Amino acid sequence: MPTYEYECKKCGNQFEKFQSMTEKPLQRCPKCRGKVARLIGTGAGIIFKGSGFYATDYRSDSYKSAARTDSASSSASSSKSDVKSSSSKTETTTTSKI
After folding, report:
1. FRET label pair with 7: which of 24, 46, 68, 78, CA 20 to 30 Å apart?
2. pTM of the full predicted structure?
3. What is the pLDDT of residues 18-67, one digit of tens each?
């Protein structure tokens, strides 16, 4: 059930009311009985409780196995390229005349 914000047009009292979505909006201020207007709220933030909520928590098994295969093959190819690049480097020295 959402929390609605109201503001009294007569006394300026702002208050919140926890009510069902199917309930009719409040008409009167609880303080001065003046007319109230329901304010446009920003909505509630999402609260995650517990240990670790990640985008990958609810992936399918086929997605997870494909991701493992892909990461294993990319790490193997990157280690091969590291070996090639280090063996192809040659050391050069330069001398300058003064």
Report:
1. 46
2. 0.43
3. 888 899 999 999 999 999 999 987 666 676 666 666 666 667 788 778 88
Residue 7 belongs to domain spanning? 3-38
Residue 33 lies in a domain: yes
DSSP assignment string, the chain: --EEEEEETTT--EEEEE--TTSPPP-B-TTT--BEEEPPP--PPP---SS---TTTT--HHHHHHHHHHHHHHHHHHHHHHHHHHHH----------
What are the structure tokens assigned to 18, written together? 């926890």
Count how many domains the chain has: 1
